[in-house]
Design goal:
By secondary structure, the chain is α/β, with parallel strands linked by helices. Among the domains are: about 100 residues, OB fold (Dihydrolipoamide Acetyltransferase, E2P); about 160 residues, P-loop containing nucleotide triphosphate hydrolases (Rossmann fold, 3-Layer(aba) Sandwich); about 160 residues, Rossmann fold, CATH 3.40.50.300. Helices cover about 35% and strands about 15% of the residues. The chain is built from 22 helices and 22 strands. The longest helix is centred in the first third of the chain and has 27 residues. It binds adenosine-5'-diphosphate (ADP) and magnesium ion (MG). The site of magnesium ion has 4 residues, from α10. It holds the Pfam family DEAD. GO terms for molecular function: 3'-5' DNA helicase activity; ATP binding; ATP hydrolysis activity; DNA binding.
Length: about 700
Amino acid sequence: MQYLRNLKDSISTLPKVGPSATKCYSEMGIFTFSDLLSLSPRAWEDRSMIHALGELEDGMTANTLVEVVAHSYFGPKFSNKRTLKILVKDVSQKGYGRLSLVCFGRNFLEKTLKVGHIYYLYGTVSRHMGELQCSQFEMTPATEDGDFPDSFGKILPIYPLKGTLSQRIIRRDVLAILSKVDRFEEELPLSIRTKHSLLSFDEALRIWHFPPSLSSHDHARKTLAFSELFYLQLVARRRNVSLARGTSQGPSTPTKLELKFIEDLPFPLTADQMTVLKEIRKDLDSEQAMNRLLQGDVGSGKTLVAWISSLHVLSTGAQVAFMAPTELLSRQHAESAARLLEPLGIRIAFLTGSVKGKERKLLLQAIAKGNVDIIIGTHALFSKEVSFKNLRYVIIDEQHRFGVEQRLALLQKAEVPDLLLMTATPIPRTLSLTVFGNLNVSTIRTMPPQRVPIVTHLVSEGSRERMYKAISVEFKRGHQAYFVYPRIDDTGESNLRDVTNMFEFLKEHYPQVPSALIHSKLDEEEKMAILKNYQEGKLQYLVSTSVVEVGIDIPNATCMVIEHADRFGLSALHQLRGRVGRSHLQSYCFLVFGNDLTDDAKQRLKVMKESNDGFYIAEQDLVIRGPGEITGTRQSGFLRLHYASLSEDLDLIEQARKEADRILLTDPAFLTEDNSVIRRTLSESSPFEEENQEVF
Ligand code: ADP
Ligand code: MG
């Protein structure tokens, strides 16, 4: 008996997997046996029925037993460009009819497909001048005992492919692993399986890859998806259900520290900021751990809310961790926190992978001793070496950029911390139900006053000059700009504009205007120095890849140029555009597009021109992309679900959640006989452990 997730043998230990296949697998994120068995077929091909040659029409698929009758060659005489043609006849029980296999570039088949021998043939046929032909086919020698070979008489999975991998190779390797395991360990209690008529895990996994009938894989998928959703919610909701934390601290009024901070701000809070602050304070003061999502469009003032709410817990001697997805962004947050909060005596620290050596050691000590109040950083905040003295409150900025594993890892740093997730990209309800148990949502709808809506222009090649002129007017007014391109340098592969060449071009175009080039290959120090100069107005424009996408706050920047805008997704475009329009100044966004736009790209650009509203844009994004990705694709940034679909499985999600809650309430330690599979699964093969801890 084996847990699927515990099959950690390297794929390269399989007998026929060499370095080239190993490499292709690794490009698909497949390293271990478990990874490969978790690869979902994208479709299945029914080869269970014989389709004899005599029954076939143009375009139909042959699936039958044939005998090789003769070899011949066609093409120019006396040249080495001649092509092998193999004549076969049907010898299945229903069989009659003949077919020519045209072997373009595969003359070597003369040696392997021998006259008089019997093979299983699979391939799509066509009719040429009365002759039935097939040029893409699989021929597998018939086995001596008359059994079907592995690829015939069955329903076969079709997997996504990379490089030199073929369906045949992946199927072979999946089968090899499946045959090594006598039985996969069960993960769901019998009572749940019976109630929801689910298969055993072992049956489900095997059927999922090689279903005995085309309808049976639905049943397998339901079983696997249920199990996945059940554990996801069990783990997420365990936080919620069990947790009392001492008595309530009375009414949730702002602390003195908060009031002082708010008074000293150069502007009043918006009504929405005040409302969400009330909601957050109430959670912070309650016995239950906070589990709240703060959503608000880019520039709506979420960060400020985060700082003020931090002050609420700091007055009780607690620590706060603030995590942002990039080094750049977390450093900017750390700087603004230092500016705003240090005058109040709050001790701020900045921790990312780039803080090294002695400095790091001292910092870690200070955090462990409680000599730091707010720790700001990237995912380095929850690497194993960091321990907090009294972490009470965890804030995650741009939460959609983090994987679930990373979030769960940070939560494990504290008994039961309060959790505030901030996002400018509203998340689907299905996701808020699953990943976070039951997430409460606070929303900032209105922008700070005096914000002028950004004007967005769609710019074709022909109107490029006009755009450059408009921007030079902004430069004369002392305003700043971003120019964003999709790539760093010209790799010769495509005609995309790149930052390196465009930087030179723009320097000639705007000879007097100071500028800099910034992209992900620069080291952090360089990037920070450039941004600092930009912030201080010493640089007037940045030529950049999408490193400016997240969070950077430069109110004097009024122009955003995005080239090849059709190549960006809606949420990236909205994030990028959100770098301007951050003050009372009129801002402009120029979306430059090329000639051959896909329909989807046209729609995306239209949405951008029409609206500045992040919620509307997120909705349209879902509409344009259709109802979710197909089962098994990775929902990057959100969550890696192999079988369940967040857009289509709402019913299943709810059923699984009910079961998880029922068990958490009645048997939280999983002590009954029936629930003991849960206890074992969690302790021996937890579905949500900190995998890929350092990478994302
Ligand atoms: P978000 O994180 O939601 O994208 P930020 O918190 O970065 O937004 O805020 C964007 C800008 O708006 C910052 O410069 C911030 O100081 C400013 N800001 C925040 N709240 C207000 C307010 N109530 N009135 C005016 N400006 C505000
Ligand atoms: Mg922000």
